[in-house]
Amino acid sequence: MPKTPISLIVDDSCPLIHVYQYHRAARTLEGPTTEDGRLLAAAVPNDFLDRFCDVAEAHGMAGKFSIVPSPGGRGDVARGVEGFDAALTRQWLDTARKRLSARFDFCPEMITHHLALDLATGGYFPENENDWSQRQDRATLTPYITHALQILKDAGVIATGVTSPWVFGIEVEPEYVAAIAAARKAVYEDNFSWYFLHMLHDRPDARPWVASREGGSAVVSIPSTLNDFFWPTIDSPRTDRAYIESAADLYLTADGRKGKIREVLDAGGWPVILSHWQSLFSNGLETGLAILDEAGHRIDRALAGEVEWKSCLEMACMVVS
Ligand SMILES: [Zn+2]
After folding, report:
1. Ligand 1 center to residue 127 CA distance, Å?
2. Cα dihedral angle (18, 242, 228, 33), rounded to 10 degrees?
3. Strands of 217-221's sheet in order across
4. Is the pLDDT of residue 26 over 80?
5. Confidence label for 321 from pLDDT (cuts 50, 70 and 90)
6. Residue 51 and which of 170, 217, 223, 293 are 20 to 30 A apart at CA?
């Protein structure tokens, strides 16, 4: 029997900047904090990427890995992230290319994952990219996505698709999809793209689908089917084994009989696991990454004959073939 694809979506990843710090409203004068009152880290050290790669490689994981091109609007990944030695941005990109490119697709998550960039002036609109996007059409979205892709290309990154920060473009989705196709064609001369927008966590039977075939281009929508169960680690000081195992149970119990991955497989869907750089980083405790590692072990042991790790592009190719 053919194996079912399983995939890992990593959102909000970028060199150095803890992008989540920009999304969480500040409750103290020192800045935004976790629910239990610890200050959110301003930066994510490069060696966290090394440890993520260790876990992904150990289990042969595949999926997609966002690279926010201009995280928080602070410099960009081609020139260097503002406030840090440019060599650190280059080192992060080198590691991502060397260790992830074989099994993960890279993509922008629009430009800043924060305020929308005014392409005409280089300044910022007073609203985030999500709010801005919902009133746009292909005439404005195409140059916006082209700019995002071009920064990654200038940084030596091949981006095969696009991730939507928040639910970017959901109100104007046909225009958004047309803009993705046009921008990918303009920057990479490629007629085949995927995008991540839909979180179908109450639709365990969901699989990717072809969103558009227009003018010789095809765009495939890759939905996530599993919630980000790593998320509560941002707000918890716990790092003990029992905590890690109970969170891993939400994905798959050690015997492989229960958990959301099992539910999705039983419903005939493809398990596409949503995660975020900040929920794996867990404000420096890296508890989310430990849960991912434990879930990876369980998938290896209990589901080896049933699932196969696939990148987003690989899943997209399966859908059109
Ligand atoms: Zn995001």
Report:
1. 16
2. -30
3. 161-163, 192-196, 217-221, 209-214
4. no
5. confident
6. 223
How would residue 215 be classed by pLDDT, with cut points 50, 70 and 90?
confident
Is the torsion defined by CA of 130, 196, 97, 142 positive or negative? negative
Q: Give 163 Cα–ligand 1 centroid separation in angstroms.
A: 8
Q: How far apart are CA 130 and CA 312, in angstroms?
A: 22
Residue 125 belongs to what H/E stretch? strand 124-128
Does 163 or 29 have the greater pLDDT score? 163
How do the domains of the chain map onto residue ranges?
A: 7-238+271-293+307-320
What does the pLDDT look like over 288-302, one tens digit per residue?
999 999 999 999 999
From 120, 213, 218, 219, select the one nearest 164 (Cα to Cα): 219
pLDDT, mean over the chain: 96
Q: How close is the Cα of 133 to the center of ligand 1, in Å?
A: 14
Residue with tokens 């003018």: 215
Enter the tokens of residue 138.
């292909």
Number of H helices, E strands in the chain: 11, 13
Per the CB < 8 A criterion, the answer to whether 173 and 210 are in contact is: no
Given 3-state DSSP classes, what are the helix, strand and coil percentages for the chain, each rounded to the nearest 5? Answer: 40, 20, 40
Q: Token pair of 10, please?
A: 């990593």
Tokens 């365990």 found at? 204
pLDDT in tens, 100-143: 999 999 999 999 999 999 999 999 999 999 999 999 999 999 99
pLDDT value for 170: 98
CA 236 / ligand 1 centre spacing (Å): 21
What separation in Å is there between the alpha carbon of 11 and the centre of ligand 1?
Answer: 5
Report whether CATH 3.20.20 matches the domain 7-238+271-293+307-320: yes
Distance CA 133, CA 140 (A): 9
224 CA distance to ligand 1 middle (Å): 13
